[in-house]
Specification:
Helices cover 35% and strands 22% of the residues. By secondary structure, the protein is an alpha+beta fold. The strands form three sheets. The protein has a five-stranded antiparallel sheet with strand order 10-9-8-11-12. Strands 4-7-5-6 form a four-stranded antiparallel sheet, with helices on one face. It has a three-stranded parallel sheet with strand order 2-1-3, sandwiched between helices. Helix 1 links the parallel strand 1 and strand 2. The radius of gyration is 20 Å and the shape is globular. The chain starts with a strand and ends with a helix.
Length: 342
Amino acid sequence: MKIAVVCGGLSNERDVSITSGSCVARALREKGHKVVLVDLYYGYSGDYTDPAELFEREQEDFRYCVAEETPDIEKMLADGDGSRIGRNVIEICRAAEISFLALHGEDGENGKLQATFDMYGIKYTGSGYLGSAIAMNKELSKIMFRYNGINTPPGIVLEKGAKSHEDVGFPCVVKPCSGGSSVGTSIVHGRDEYEQALETAFKFENRVLVEKYVKGRELTVGVIDGKAMPVIEIIPKSGWYDYKNKYQAGLTEEICPAPISEEETYKVQRLAERVSAALMIDVYCRADFLLNEADGELYCLEANALPGMTPTSLVPQMGAAQGMDFGEVCEKIIEVSMEKYK
């Protein structure tokens, strides 16, 4: 197949996305596909007469690693021309048989790009614009969880600029409403920390979610084509599962399948499938849970409509537990995505 792998963009998760994109592009080429890797924001500046010819050229084996700090998006915006879709991106994606969205964060996961591609008749992997938008917004996700009877930690949403900010008690978790990869997220134990955490989160968004902290085991489950994958337990070697622990190799232990009972495994897998349906996510996603150590209850934190595809990412590990190599996981995502267009 001729496949455009779209990565980068203007999200704080840009580096994660480029790593995902380079890994996906390499794996698909190894499976015999004709692949062009393109940055959503910077586009493609090389010469060509017809974008279709790019898929016949030998491509550089591009490799990228996630830095410990998030990129300087403000500088990128200041240096740009105001467009969030780079030169030739639409033309290249229209020339492909499908575009693999290896995007994370704002531009890739909030539904805007999916709606744009729909208008251009571009086929793409992952959920459509509606499921993407709901899953990206944690406030909307929690509303849908509660409507569908899915446990989620109690929380409130705060607006930037308010004269005073209420809380849900301590400890609590403060995070931007539509962020990902734990960027701008803090675990807070008291009032002084709380004000600092709000200041940090408001740097990224004008609406911030404050949740009651649930102490327990962190579990995550991928869902492809409505069917749950093996469960992973996430155990950071120090601290909590923040941006650094997510993407720097060796800092977190990920056990797949998770060392939980068959009953608990069945419960969390069925719940992940319900989460996917409740948020109207089609094709695939990854749902994150906490297994409360106090009462054994499962709480859904969120669902990610475009899960990471880096060397340390979780969906590829789940695929490996099912006997699928990285390239086969990518091909499965493409196969299920193409069903949308039949």
